[in-house]
Design goal:
- β4 and β5 form a beta hairpin.
- Helix content is 31%, strand content 28%.
- It starts with a strand and ends in a 7-residue tail after the last helix.
- The strands form 4 sheets. A 5-stranded antiparallel β-sheet has the order 15-14-13-16-17, sandwiched between helices. Strands 1-6-5-4 form a 4-stranded mixed β-sheet, with no helix packed on it.
- The protein contains 9 helices and 17 strands.
- The protein is of the alpha+beta class and 316 residues long.
- It has 3 domains: 112 residues, Rossmann fold, CATH 3.40.50; 54 residues, Dna Ligase, domain 1 (2-Layer Sandwich); 109 residues, D-amino Acid Aminotransferase, Chain A, domain 1, CATH 3.30.470.20.
Length: 316
């Protein structure tokens, strides 16, 4: 059994996360000890024993290496998968075991008093779109006019009041942005909450990746009609250009990060033909690796540097 050295970085993500791979590689280059695991490995391949003595102390053990929980300087919480439970369990047993594993494993790890990128509780809060839109509006980041409703009549009235095209996008899992015709709204709208927003004319969009106090902003220019509506639908048509964030936007984004206690955020903005930056959304665990590959921006290195420094350096 190999014990991981003191002052380690715990990386919680799935086995095939190329984005996390790039950060881990840079941590190794800097001589920073790393213990990487996935919540899916618990409880069958990963053992945890933690005792409450002035905080949770103990270890994680994957059968090859062992991590002293008191030695963790930072946690990189990327995209861990659901707990993988033994075959042959009844549905009731699986639900109980999964709930116990989530409360026990994540409860202990989430209590570690160290730097998190990002803490799962902070990430969950920030990824509620209605909440982030309200905060963005309060801070003057000028998000689009929006309605959340399951009433088709209210959706049609919103569109009539706007007097311009409207779009819809998912409130939860990523789904493409779609321009919608309010005349098509029917009783199926009542089946769940829907987010409708005004369509905003755009010169281009901006993906702003924030790591601590570092801002990596790149213009995204659409090369097709589909990409103009949602650039995620046609990556092959996109072109990228590094850009400078206006100081007024920078100050408001920093306030947004403080509000949700985030260390990392992937922000999307529309830049109008008049040059105004308008907030669309933030993903507190958004993808950024392709931006680094397209532009050479040192995002992985910046994340690794922050993880190496640990708690107290979030804004540096």
């Amino acid at each position: 059994m190999t014990a991981v050295a003191e002052e380690s970085v715990l990386v919680l993500t799935n086995q095939f996360d190329a984005t996390a791979d790039s950060v881990v590689a840079r941590l190794y280059d800097r001589g920073v000890p790393v213990f990487r695991c996935d919540t899916a490995e618990f409880p069958q391949e990963l053992t945890m024993s933690a005792t409450l003595e002035g905080g949770w102390g103990g270890n994680l053990d994957n059968g090859v290496r062992q991590l002293d929980l008191s030695s963790v300087r930072a946690v990189y919480y990327r995209r861990p998968e659901e707990f993988r439970l033994p075959d042959g369990m009844s549905e009731a047993e699986r639900q109980f075991a999964a709930a116990q594993s989530r409360a026990g494993f994540l409860g202990v790890v989430a209590s570690l008093p160290c730097l998190w990128i990002n803490h799962p509780a902070r990430e969950q809060q920030a990824n509620y779109k209605p909440w982030q839109l309200r905060v963005a509006q309060d801070l003057g980041l000028n998000p689009p006019r929006s309605i959340i409703t399951n009433d088709p009549a209210d959706g049609r009235k919103f569109a009539a009041d706007i007097g311009a095209p409207i779009i819809t996008k998912s409130l939860g899992s990523p789904v493409d942005t779609v321009i919608v015709d309010p005349a098509d709204f029917d009783d199926s709208v009542r089946l769940c909450a829907h987010l409708f927003q005004e369509w905003m004319d755009k010169a281009h969009e901006v993906r702003l990746t924030v790591v601590g106090s570092r801002f990596f902003a790149v213009e995204i220019h659409a090369g097709s009609d589909a990409a103009l509506v949602d650039w995620r639908t046609d990556y092959a048509s996109l072109t990228y250009r590094p850009t400078v964030v206006p100081e007024s936007v920078r100050l408001r984004v920093r306030a947004f990060m403080r509000h949700f206690q985030l260390v990392f955020g992937a922000f999307d903005f529309v830049v109008t033909p008049e040059g105004a930056w308008r907030f669309l959304e933030v993903n507190a665990n958004g993808q950024w690796h392709w931006i680094e590959q397209e532009t050479g921006m040192p995002i992985a290195r910046s994340i690794a540097e922050l993880l190496e420094k640990g708690a107290g350096n979030e804004g540096r």
